[in-house]
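Example record

The entry below shows one chain as it appears in the dataset: sequence first, then structure tokens.
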Amino acid sequence: MDALYPVIGGRRLICHSEVDTLHEPYALILDTNVIKDIGSFYFGHRQISPKLRQLLSYIRSQCRATRMSLGAAGVCYRLGLTELSLKRNNGVNYSQFRNYGSAVCKLITCGEDEFAWICDTTPSYAYSYDSNIDETVDSCVSLESGYLPIFYGSILYLLAIQLEKTSHQKTIDESINQFERFYKWAHDDLGFITALPTLLALYQLLGKDGNSKETRYRGNARHLTKFDPNKITKPSELANCAWNAAWDILFLMRLSDYNTGEVLRREGKDPHSIPTVLISKDYDPAWLSFSTNPLGELYTADGSTTLPYFESSSDFFDPFHVMSKDQRAAFWKRLNAVKTSCSRKTEDPIERTNHSIIAVHELENHLGIDPTRFLSLENRYQITHL
């Protein structure tokens, strides 16, 4: 990864483009660990590390460069702030959200003299408490985590079916049957099929590993989910793997939204691609968003949802090209039959969120997992449980 992406302050600058990310103006997405390190320094009564100071200087310069053209969209930090403050079983840590958010804003926007003074001294800032803005925090969390139940549920089901014991190594037809179960559950029960979790399922269930890092399809997919079926001993461990992977996919989706202009569309502006960098302490693998993608885009031009399509030029299931032409054709015919068995299905965001959360809770109950409470979403959409 270090050879593929520039590194500054010990963090990778992950992007789609070949443009010089160290010198050209880019919008920035701050990963959760970056938010955590900034907040921990600001409230931690300790000297700043040279790497964090270098990183903050880079963020500040990029923020100045994009302020006139992008405004608040120039630095995306609330997604990382939401992951940091939202726990699967404990809901939102409002105090952490407010205070770490204020630390990020302060260190990015303050003047040069004040920034130098903060970095050259040992800060002694204390948490402030203002419950009057908890409703505002809830609104922000619900906006940032809108797709979290869908991604979490999709990945949880994907991991669960892989825990089922078999007495022999699965054939490719049995693996396709597993993918069909995943695809139909996402369509029929969860109510929404999304591109990145579906791509993850294809790689994890049907992918094979080639020689290069970019073609280690199955190995990289399991790296993203941190899933080892031989080490999972409790249902909560399965849920934690799915929860963390869902957040990784949310960050990849946000990076894609900047590059497609979807971020601007949601603000009522004409969409156009925004050069964007995801700053991450240890984000691996970024391959999921850049490798040959056998799936179509999640959004069409009018913003509606569409089923992913499969592209037969991909070699994720046969990286060494040992299959014959007829075998590859038979594989794609079988895989496309899975897709065409599910008709187009759309819902408005409230219905989709309600439906997906209920489906997730039913799945967790079946697996013996304590229910995940998406409290901000449930309160926003007034979701009731069965």
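Notes for this example: The longest strand covers residues 276-280. Residues 235-260 form the longest helix (26 residues).
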